[in-house]
Amino acid sequence: MRSRQFSRTPWSVSEIGFGAWAIGGTWGDTDDSAAMAALHHALDRGVNFFDTADVYGDGHSERLLARLKRERPSDAFYIATKAGRRLNPHVAEGYRDLRPFIERSLKNLETDTLDLLQLHCPPTAVYTMPEVFGALDELVREGKLRHYGVSVERIDEAMAALKFPGVQSVQIIYNIFRQRPQDLLFQETLRRKVAIGIETSLR
After folding, report:
1. Are 64 and 32 contacting, i.e. CB atoms less than 8 angstroms apart?
2. Which helix or strand (DSSP H or E) is residue 13 part of?
3. Which of 56, 78, 127, 148 is labelled catalytic?
4. Distance between alpha carbon 191 and the CA centroid of its chain, in Å?
5. Residue ranges covered by each domain of the chain
6. What share of the chain has pLDDT > 90, as a percent?
7. Alpha-carbon gap, residue 91 to 119, rounded angstroms
8. pLDDT, tens digit (0-9, with 9 covering 90-100), for 60-89
């Protein structure tokens, strides 16, 4: 498995990560034994980056990853989770204070510090709200987060997020049907030394 430096961090992460949406049970019933076997197999094959979110199975995916940490204490790996989609209503103003959701993810993942928190496809207006990113900077200073980034739907949202210096990652859909990110976004993340996460789903 090839690896790359993750943004401006000292992390060396596998080029292929494990997307943990399905094991949360969002798409229907899942078998935790099969899920854990898949997680262990990923580690065995050199994957050391796992992507989840607090809404994947209402936290079940996060709890399975916590179990993986217990079962593989000698393996170093990174977990990226997301926050924001639990807001009801899902409005930009709610992103000013994600602390309750972050505390819940810390509990689910059985840790004191989240490796990477990504805003979970927030409303576009969030990217014109510096107080949102200031609150994330404060959570980094407090030790609740090591790093933070964004998961976006649109290229303009990603470009807006890159204006905030604390952003360490951008996750966006890129596949055979959606290739526009390569025209501008990829070059800009490279220039700014921001990690780019490619989601290949066809949604």
Report:
1. yes
2. strand 12-14
3. 56
4. 21
5. 3-199
6. 93
7. 13
8. 999 999 999 999 999 999 999 999 999 999
CB 49 within 8 A of CB 20: no
**pTM score, two decimals?**
0.96
* pLDDT (average), residues 119-130: 98
- Cβ proximity of 162 and 127 under 8 Å: no
Scanning the chain, the segments in alpha helix (DSSP H) are: 32-44, 60-71, 99-108, 130-142, 155-161, 185-192
* Architecture of the domain defined by 3-199: Alpha-Beta Barrel (3.20)
User: Quick check: 58 and 109 in contact, CB under 8 A?
Assistant: no
> What is the mean predicted confidence (pLDDT) over 159-164?
98
Closest CA to 68 of 40, 48, 45: 40
Instruction: Verify cis geometry, omega within 30 degrees of 0, for the bond prior to 89.
Output: yes
* Active-site annotation holds for 56: yes
The answer to whether the beta carbons of residues 152 and 170 sit under 8 Å apart is: yes
Amino acid at 148: Y
Q: For the chain, what is the radius of gyration of the CA atoms?
A: 16
Average pLDDT, the chain: 96
Rounded to an integer, the average pLDDT of 135-152 is 98
The pLDDT of residue 203 is 56
Instruction: Compute the residue count for the chain.
Output: 203
